[in-house]
């Protein structure tokens, strides 16, 4: 343990431990060091991962109800495709250590990272496990950078284009991480202090978000006089704030990279600094809100708390409680003061990316140059440098400013280039005006009918707004159903044509036979009677009584053959059918009735008039029933 003690006392211990400080030692005590530090950063990674839920709730609660599902999906996409991008290339650009290409500006190596491939010997088993833990921690940090951008492009960016943009943001963020945290990085060698990603994560995401929201232009009617863009769910936004608040303890306390070697002290200081900064920022935001508006504005409260936590990330591990309180309060003032400036410049920032992540990260990096205090035991934690209050030297402040300016310039340039190329590609970047009116929940996910009603409620119920939204929704529904309706109509048309063809064939066969049943145009069957001249009435042996039925024909014809027409021959349309039934009953009770003679040469069927006058009716006295049996 004496050798280990000499390592603990060394002032050159690096805080960011991609390679554990005890990797060259081998003993049971060293195994315990690895285990303790690995459990610390793995647990912190789990907490950081919950921040994606917080980002999703905050963003979905801040945008319109017609886009809240889409913004949640984009946060899922950040983890899925952003993680894929980081594993394949991002981690290698940040911490690649291929010696022939080692340089201060970009890493090379460890692409498609597989620690088991790099550490395949039994002696390096501890370093293998540590590499898995450190990769998970860095992945959790990196994906938050692309999540920041999702809030800036809310309600305006296409989902497919955003997936590509998120992957590119991960690669853009990889280089500042190399500059600030890798032991060969250009700013790390100069002595920059950024424990938890104030510059390498929040500043990168914030400046790309600003460039994106300016490039995409404001949402439709955002800055009109009668425009009202309120939060769809302040409750979700506040719940997301709580989850982010919780997650930042994982970022700040986990960024000391372990608890051995005296680093647990820095972790405790980071946790206290996080809560004290949020207290200062929240108290300041509440005070400003009451003084300015006489009410507690929800967006003021959210911006004040989250911006204060962002500003303390750079100095959290060596901050005193009063440092954190002051830094958080000043950050809260900046985050609220920037809001009217954004409105005046017509910069549409739906979720507050600029006040929370950009202005706060700039102030946080500057605050390190003022308040940073060298730790009494781990002097290497701040690269043996102190801020203006404790050294009366501007050296650290100048390094912080140089790092800030470089990262802002680099991230803005590469972010704009990525946005420009995507917008000019076949994918496109911004949704159309029509798609924006309908909302991404309907266009991208087909969730019509769920959030549209809530969207209408949150809008001002002016006649113009109501008509615009109603027409847009109606038009979309008509277009969405047009294809299926055409298919149904085509199928019905084919079915009618088949029925008509079948009817025509049956009708032709019946006419060709001259007897039997003839279907009419309505699908009913008309039983024709033969002409009276072709058949004589048959009586019983006494010469009286009802006529006997012919073996071939049912009854003697009393009318001429009728034309096939729905107006005459249909049972429903022809009242004469009932009269024939009555007359038949009379014949069966009282004997044969006189029948009107029909000419032998009847007119062709097609020439018979289709009106009811063409039917020869019996005298009215014949059609009246003479007994109860006939009425029955």
Automatic annotation (TrEMBL):
Subcellular localization: Cell membrane; Membrane
Keyword presence, Lipid metabolism: no
Presence of the UniProt keyword Hydrolase in the record: no
Biased composition (Low complexity): 531-542
Membrane topology summary: Multi-pass membrane protein
Residue span of region Disordered: 516-551, 564-632
Major localization class: membrane
Domain of life: Eukaryota
UniProt cross-references to InterPro entries, sorted A to Z: Ammonium/urea_transptr, Ammonium_transpt, Ammonium_transpt_CS, NH4_transpt_AmtB-like_dom
UniProt keywords, alphabetically: Ammonia transport, Membrane, Transmembrane, Transmembrane helix, Transport
Protein name stated in the entry: Ammonium transporter
Organism in which the protein naturally occurs: Caenorhabditis briggsae
Taxonomic lineage: Eukaryota, Metazoa, Ecdysozoa, Nematoda, Chromadorea
